[in-house]
Amino acid sequence: MDGPPILTAMQMRAAEQAAFDAGTDPYALMEKAGAGAAEIIWRTGHRRDTLVLCGPGNNGGDGFVIARLLRDRGVTVRVAALGESRTASAQRARVAWDGPVEDMLIAAGAGQVVDALFGTGLTRGLEAPVAARLCELVEGATLSHAVDLPSGVGGDDGALLSDVPRYGICVALGAFKPAHLLYPAAGQAGRLALVDLGISLPGTVRRLGSPALTMPGPDAHKYNRGLVVVIGGGMAGASQLAAVAAARSGAGAVRRLAIGGMVAEPHAIIQRRAEQGDAVARELEDERIGAVLAGPGLGLDQEAGGRLTAALGSGRPLVLDADALTWAAKDAALSVPGGSILTPHEGEFQRLFGDLRGSKVDRALAAALRVGSVVVYKGPDTVIAAPDGRARVASGGSTWLSTAGTGDVLAGLAAGRLAVTGDPFRAACEAVWLHGEAARRSGAAFIADDLLRALPAAIAARL
Ligand SMILES: NC(=O)C1=CN([C@@H]2O[C@H](COP(=O)(O)OP(=O)(O)OC[C@H]3O[C@@H](n4cnc5c(N)ncnc54)[C@H](OP(=O)(O)O)[C@@H]3O)[C@@H](O)[C@H]2O)[C@@H](O)CC1
Ligand SMILES: Nc1ncnc2c1ncn2[C@@H]1O[C@H](COP(=O)(O)OP(=O)(O)O)[C@@H](O)[C@H]1O
Ligand SMILES: [K+]
């Protein structure tokens, strides 16, 4: 579940400084970063003629190292710079490159372009002529690499500070930065590669890794594998999708509390009628219940509010999604019990938490702290945040997920994994991973129901 760390520029500088304080030579670190990047560029580009663009800071210094090492392997390399090198390490790397240095603004293109203009030191957008020339050169190349970051993105929040071209590969140095995973920058970075610089890094914010799941033990029975209750409402299909997802996530038993007519299949879902809050409250007295899901298809009428109130007061572990989040945003009396899982999309997040500051990771962490619960802030870049400061980011998954009902499936998965594990953060991480993996396995133009069918294979892949 723990993918590689994600560091802001300030955290990256602190980690590098700690390494320098412990005796690492700054220039040796630049050589190591440049060598790692050159290796990746060599493996993908081979002998393609190459233009390396070098900026004034250490990112440019990496570029000079890359240029030298590619040339040493027999690649035809040209270097074009944007001004003089301003740091001691970059100046040293520039001297070690003993070939000519062209002016970036007038240099001709090449089959392969390496952007080492700016990395974590970018403080503002590129000047318009520089951004325009960068776009022309990168878009005119067959293969393009961004060194550490695409020049022009806000490394800490993934914003585009000026026009940014789309790269083939982005080689992150030392650690991923938020912009590698957060949109819109993540959409321009292309395929991600990571160079390990061997320095010690903080690990509270990480890329979401694949979970280690386990089979039920020989002592397993339906009630000790996790009992989930899904509270239904006017839109039966939504709570049914969630209920089946919970069942397919590995839970032992799933009950769906329906209003009106029952959904017949699959027969494994236990359907019970509970329209009023008091009927729901009675259903939730069962102490074996490991998770209650409220929200998908719940409704916004008065009876729906009564059913939600019963869930919030049940004392059972909760997953709140969709209409439950809309209720919580508009009715201050409906406070969210700590230790829950909330799964808002962008609109629900805005309604619940308003305009928080910072990157999507910062906003998710602030929201988690405010409600004392795990927040799954959904989207093409989904951030899972815990009140203790941990966060995981899942990005670059199937964009076919942008179809109705996939959020209901995710909420059901979160409830199922919560009942199985009893740990809200772990459950949310496992649910997001399984959801993304089921989408990957479902190919193109799938619908939410198809994700349900892909879940057993997604789980089997992690046993
Ligand atoms: N620390 C290390 O030892 C290691 C670091 N590593 C590498 O260093 C990179 C970070 O290096 P960095 O901090 O030197 O910043 P970098 O991104 O090169 O740019 C800063 C320069 O650009 C300037 N500038 C900013 N914005 C601008 C704009 N819009 N238009 C024009 N100029 C602008 C800014 O000057 P300013 O005008 O803001 O004073 C400054 O001169 C990191 O991403 C990684 O690649 C690796 O080698 C591993 C070892
Ligand atoms: N463009 C996208 N790329 C990847 N995943 C997406 C994209 N759009 C939505 N998703 C994912 O699909 C799901 C949609 O959930 P939600 O918006 O609640 O939809 P619904 O309410 O219709 O079920 C979330 O898990 C979200 O992260
Ligand atoms: K760069």
From TrEMBL:
Tagged with keyword Cell membrane: no
UniProt: K(+) binding residues: 59, 115, 151
Catalysed reaction equations from the record: (6S)-NADHX + ADP = AMP + phosphate + NADH + H(+); (6R)-NADHX = (6S)-NADHX; (6S)-NADPHX + ADP = AMP + phosphate + NADPH + H(+); (6R)-NADPHX = (6S)-NADPHX
Cofactor: Mg(2+); K(+)
Cofactor binding note: Binds 1 potassium ion per subunit.
Top-level taxon of the source organism: Bacteria
Binding-site residues, AMP: 378-382, 407
Keyword set, alphabetical order: ATP-binding, Isomerase, Lyase, Metal-binding, Multifunctional enzyme, NAD, NADP, Nucleotide-binding, Potassium
YjeF C-terminal domain residues: 205-462
Molecular functions (GO terms): ADP-dependent NAD(P)H-hydrate dehydratase activity; ATP binding; metal ion binding; NAD(P)HX epimerase activity
BP-aspect Gene Ontology terms: metabolite repair; nicotinamide nucleotide metabolic process
NCBIfam families assigned: yjeF_cterm (TIGR00196), yjeF_nterm (TIGR00197)
Protein known as: Bifunctional NAD(P)H-hydrate repair enzyme
